[in-house]
Amino acid sequence: MSSTRRSFMMQVAGTGAAWVGIQGAAHAAPPVDEADPQAKSLGYRKDTTKVDDKQYPKHAAAQKCGTCQLYQGKPGDAAGACGIFAGKDVSASGWCSAWMKKAG
Ligand code: SF4
């Protein structure tokens, strides 16, 4: 008499599994809206090439948030925090009239 033996190995690794979120590691703040009153008063544009040079004669195309002293994003980031716009991100290629050259 023969019998077939089947073995089912079911391992359910459900209990005890720890779900570790990566919360906060890549926190993205909402972008600054160019139409925001504060942004408008500072002439903020998310694209430095769109700045009106007649209105802001000190502006130069090489000036952008990514090279500003107040920019808090990391090199290579598309956007980052700015000391002026609390809780919001500015574009690394943006600009406003408070631009000042990053030291170093
Ligand atoms: Fe960009 Fe600097 Fe103006 Fe902030 S202060 S919006 S980083 S140019």
Supply the key terms:
two-stranded antiparallel sheet, binds iron/sulfur cluster, little secondary structure, 104 residues, High-Potential Iron-Sulfur Protein, Chain A, 1 helix
The best one-word shape is globular
CATH superfamily of the domain at 29-91: High potential iron-sulphur protein
- Report how far apart the termini are: 86 Å
Along the chain, the helix and strand elements come as HEE
What is the helix tally?
A: 1
Q: What is the radius of gyration? A: 25 Å
Quick structural summary:
This protein has 104 residues and is largely without helices or strands. The protein has one helix at 37-41; strands at residues 79-81, 89-91.
Topology:
Blueprint: H1 37-41, E1 79-81, E2 89-91
Antiparallel strand pairs: 1-2
Bound molecules: iron/sulfur cluster.
Describe this structure in words.
There is one protein chain. This protein is low in regular secondary structure. The chain has a domain at 29-91: Irregular (High-Potential Iron-Sulfur Protein, Chain A). The protein has one helix at 37-41; strands at 79-81, 89-91. It has a two-stranded antiparallel ribbon with strand order 1-2. The longest helix is centred in the middle third of the chain and has 5 residues, at 37-41. The radius of gyration is 25 Å and the shape is globular. Mean pLDDT is 82; it is low at 1-25. The structure holds iron/sulfur cluster. Iron/sulfur cluster binds next to loops. Iron/sulfur cluster (SF4) binds next to loops.
